[in-house]
Amino acid sequence: MPVTIFFLTFLAVIAGWWLLQQRLHAKPWLEEGVIGEFDGTGAMDMPAAKIGLGLFLAVVGTLFALLISAYFMRMGYADWQNIRVPQILWLNTGALAASSIALQTAQSAVYRRHIDGVRSRLIVAGAFGVLFLAGQFWAWHELTDSGFLLASNPSNSFFYLITGLHGLHVIGGMAALGWVTDRAWRSQTAEPLRLPVEMCTLYWHFLLFVWIVLFSLLTGWADEFGAICRQLLT
Amino acid sequence: MKTAIILVIVAVGSVLFHLLSPWWWTPIASNWAYIDHTISLTFWITGAVFVAVVLFMAYCIFRFHHTPDRQAAYEPENKKLEAWLTVATAIGVAAMLAPGLFVWGQFVTVPKGATELEIVGQQWQWSYRLPGKDGKLATTYTSLISPENPLGINPSDPAGRDDLVVEGGEVHLPLGKPVKMLLRSVDVLHDFYVPEFRAKMDIIPDMVTYFWITPTRTGTFDVLCAELCGVGHHIMRGKVVIDNETDYRAWLEQQKTFAELTTPIRKAEGETAPLPAAQ
Amino acid sequence: MVDATHGGMGTIPAAEVPDVELYHPHSWIEKYVFSQDAKYIAIQYSITALAIGLVALVLSWLIRLQLGFPGVFTFIDADHYYQFITMHGMIMVIYLLTALFLGGFGNYLIPLMIGARDMVFPFVNMLSYWVYLLAVLVLAASFFMPGGPTGAGWTLYPPQAILSGTPGQQWGIILMLISLIIFIIGFTMGGLNYVVTVLQARARGMTLMRMPLTVWGIFTATILALLAFPALLVANIMMLFDKLLGTSFFMPAIVELGQQMSYRGGSPILFQHLFWFFGHPEVYIVALPAFGIVSDLIATHARRNIFGYRMMVWAIVAIAALSFVVWAHHMYVSGMNPNFGFFFATTTLIIAIPTAIKVYNWILTLWRGNIHLNVPMLFALGFIVTFVNGGLSGLFLGNVVVDVPLSDTMFVVAHFHMVMGVAPIMVIFGAIYHWYPKITGRMMDEGLGKFHFWVTFLGAYLIYFPMHYLGLLGVPRRYHDLGTTDFIPPNVATLNEFITVMALIVGFAQMVFLYNLFTSVWKGKLAGGNPWRATTLEWQTPQTPPAHGNFGKDLPVVYRWAYDYSVPGAKEDFIPQNQPPSAATA
User: Fold this and answer.
1) Is residue C148, in this structure, part of any structural domain at all?
2) What is the 3-state secondary structure of C133-173?
């Protein structure tokens, strides 16, 4: 569980930092009167959807932190053997990174109010996203073909579970991206796309980050870190 | 007024019930009297807090219930009072926690020289294994479990030949000697529970958990399962008998060793009994 | 009157958008069935939760009939008994308490109390309810599947939960896991809404420290739930894999009833860690909204500001943070590394301190108050008594070595029913009597309410207080039949009979409550907008029940905190939050 605790501590630091600006030490009974006479009286002025997305990412982050915790705990048992990850995962990682970069450029195109640029880059991002999913599917195929089935050994089970859950989140993102792309085609200007494109980009970067963490976990690079976490538990 | 009286009755009644009710812990039969003392201490502290809170509420209701000319006091906070209450609470909590942790330290530290008793849970009966003359228990593997070898003892382990196997019956323990209970399950979670011992621990399949006790009085005690283990959970019973030294020796003599129990099979299989690859 | 752009308030809160942009229903179905109005969603959530809660109530009677009169009701065999306790527990904790506090009260009260027109994502909010309903239906369906619902205990511990020695292992456990997964997805939709609404849609002037404690409680509990439910989700998905696809996440090598199984090397303790990583915060997911609501009930009906408001807020935040590092106190005798016991006993007993502060502040609010002993106030008092009792018995179970003899006995059952069953339900009842006039425009019957309170409070206390002593004696929990033992004397049967009779009486009193609840919709006395003379914004709406959009043409502007009761020099003994300073004393 240390991984999860680290992650939640990270969230707690953010929440604490925000709370510190909310004047929790104030004596509200002495502060009768109109707003503006006191600091920190306003609601957040970020768009609601963005706050919602940030919160959702915290939830998804907790989900993956828990999976990683479970992975490390299971790894401590004697029968554990790391999986030999299919080579195609390297290509997939590249595809997801390219997709993320394409969205980043789409975002700058939105800022430059360049609607054609937005459209083309959204298409590129979507294509790379599809490529990533196809690649992941191919990796599963390769593993099952060489006899590494879901229940063959625990690291296999974790591999399918973790890549599967990550893939589901990518599929969800693709649905949103498809919707944004459709809107980009209908819209004459770039301005209405600002928020949706920003959110897609944020979500994509997050998924890329999660994927890189998971990838290093599955290839065994994080084994030492896992050992440290288990030490903390004993 | 009525409400205040009822609250007083609740507080006083709870205390009277505590003092007068016939339901209390069973007479202890192990060295864990410390646990009972910690419970008593916790009862005194928490009981005092409960009575104080409820009586204070009753007083407030009696004294400050609504009347047409009453005006409530306006006092948003009282830092000093709150600080005092916090400190007092912290002291009370520490007074319970410190002995608790101290006794827990003893609970998890098995004394040197404790004899071992293996307890095996399965749906829905208890079995036991004692180290024989060599004082050592043989290794076991779940994969070796079969009708002939219900505990999965490794037949190739020389320490196993003299292990005493007690299946589904009652087990005896000698008075006054520390015993480390090694707990093993072949199927689901169980929990070896003898109320008079105070100590207990869950049993997890494919893993060995433990606790230790020193029996302090002779007698026959019920063994129950305290972790839900399926539809027969409540019928998973057994008996543990605390004997003096001579009775215990006599009982020990009657028990069969693993070698005696499996001789016919071992002859048939020869020495080539397959070893499992790994646990 | 007030400059909206003054003091860093450059952006208009989302909830303050002009009326035209608010979602409007276009048909009867959109208004009453697929409604996106948080108030309707709240009522849908509440009715669904109460309906499935009735199932849990009936199950509790059956459980008690078996315990009180073993062997008399032969249709309650061991299979059924374990199914009943499992479904009773899961329904009460997840589908009733969590759903009612967050989905029910959260939806109704958050927008109204912070001065918003609605939740910020009304469509997602509606979806949340329908997904919750689906989860309830899937759960209920398991009663009708071959083999019946699961009997694994509400903790669903593997390996037992998915093996054939446990009732409902064909379909029951699968539907249970699927239903919980659906519930979590639905809850996450709702939960994001509640949190973002509080963060982003507060009325002008509604600083965090001017929020009523109800909102603080629900807001914090929702954050807890959002971060804790993923642990249950992960555990459920992994167990579903073990059950359906033959993986060994939680399943070690096992010989089941003489047969070697194909599982290898999984860890049952891993499941317990994941389960309680959710399960302990879950206690506070239920408790924090109750803490918040009861604070407001006490302040309103004692006509006094809540004592130590700042401490109350800090305590809520501290409890929430601590609740993530105490989970393994449910696992002292689980066979985990015993050294954890030191750490988790310490964190667990530390959490008692902020909780105790809250109790002190509630009773200090009564002190020198002007206490109206109406039904909501009575329930609040009942809450304090049962919560203090249950919280104190928690100090036994949290203190690692004291837990050893008491774990898995009736003491645990008595403790968690008192602290997490009776106490929050007292608050639910108090809250229903308190906000019913706002929701329907009519009062609930006072006499029936008082009858309901006294029978429920005293009855529940008489059920659970003596039960602790059965546990102390050593009577184990989750026993279909105690059978014969040397250490359980015959008078235990007498006490069990008494408890069963009390349980039936308390259950009957809930029928009186339901009668009161439904008939008062048309028979109740007209309430007016603010029958309790309360300060918070939900009582200041132009219409009662509040119309769509809550506050009419203009959203309220907040000038003061939520607890200006009996302010010296004021005209009345309460000053609404949206009353400008000059008007209060003039």
Assistant:
1) yes
2) HHHHHHHHHHHHCCCCCCCCCCCCCCCHHHCCCCCCCCCHH
The DSSP 8-state label assigned to residue C82 in this structure reads: H
Q: Which residue of B has its CA nearest to A30?
A: B76
Locus of tokens 């903390």: A232
Assigned domain for C152 exists:
yes
Residue C561 preceded by cis peptide, ω within 30: no
**Contact status, residue C236 vs residue C50, Cβ threshold 8 Å:** no
Residue A156's identity, in one-letter code, is N
Q: Which domain holds residue C151?
A: 34-248+267-580
Number of domains in chain A: 1
Q: What band does A37 get if pLDDT is binned at 50, 70 and 90? A: low
Nearest CB to A79: which of B76, B77, B278? B278
CA dist C6 and A88 (Å) reads 57
DSSP collapsed to 3 states, C480-530: CCCCCCCCCCCHHHHHHHHHHHHHHHHHHHHHHHHHHHHHHHHHCCECCCC
**B82/C360 CB distance under 8 A:** yes
Of the candidates A143, A24, A136, A46, the one whose C-alpha atom is nearest the C-alpha of residue A91 is A136
Sign of the torsion angle spanned by Cα atoms A195, A197, A198, A203? positive
Write the CB contacts of A145 (distance below 8 Å, at least 6 apart in sequence).
Answer: none
Q: Which helix (H) or strand (E) holds C272?
A: helix C268-301
pLDDT tens digits, A62-98 = 999 999 999 988 887 777 777 788 889 999 999 999 9
Is the predicted ipTM greater than 0.85, yes or no?
A: yes
Query: In chain B, what residues touch C305 (CB-CB under 8 Å)?
Result: 74-76
Q: Hey, are the CB atoms on C402 and B193 less than 8 Å from each other?
A: no
In 3D space, the residue among C559, C554, C573 whose CA is nearest the CA of residue C12 turns out to be C554
> What CATH number does the domain containing C200 carry?
1.20.210.10
Determine contact, residues C48/A82, Cβ cutoff 8 Å: no
Is-contact C401 B104, C-beta < 8 A?
A: yes
Question: CA C275, CA A201: separation in Å to the nearest integer?
Answer: 34
Q: Is B30 left (phi over 0), alpha (psi -120 to 50) or beta?
A: beta
Q: Is the peptide bond before C159 cis (omega within 30 degrees of 0)?
A: yes
- From the CA of C367, how many Å to the nearest CA of chain B? 5
Domains of chain B and CATH, by start:
2-65+78-107 (no CATH), 115-269 (2.60.40.420)
Q: Residue C445 and residue C468: Cα distance in Å, rounded?
A: 35
Rounded to 5, what percent of chain C is helix, strand, coil? 65, 0, 35
Q: In chain A, positions 60-119, which contact chain C (CB-CB < 8 Å)?
A: 62-63, 66-67, 70, 73-74, 77, 79
Cβ neighbour number for residue A216 with a 10 Å cutoff: 13
**Domain hosting residue A23, numbered range:** 2-233
Q: Which of C122, C127, C322 lies closest to C224, judged by CA?
A: C322
Which of these, C180, C173, C264, A157, lies nearest to B206 by C-alpha position? C264
Side chain identity at B159, as an amino acid letter? A
In angstroms, rounded to a whole number, what is the distance separating the alpha carbons of residues A209 and A148?
27
Number of domains in chain C: 1
For residues C585 and C545, is the Cβ–Cβ distance under 8 A? no
| C330 inside domain | yes
Taking only the tens place, the pLDDT of each residue in C204-251 is 888 899 999 999 999 999 999 999 999 999 999 999 999 999 898 999
Instruction: Spell out which residues of chain C touch residue B224, defining contact as CB-CB under 8 Å.
Output: 476, 485
Phi and psi angles of residue B221, each rounded to the nearest 5 degrees, phi first: -125, 150
Question: Which of A21-35, B69-83, B256-270, C257-271 is the most confident on average?
Answer: B69-83
Interchain CB distance below 8 Å, B278 and A29: no
| Distance (Å, whole) CA A60 – CA A169 | 9
CA distance B78 to A60: 42
Q: Is residue C3, in this structure, part of any structural domain at all?
A: no
The enclosing domain of A200 has a CATH number of 1.20.120.80
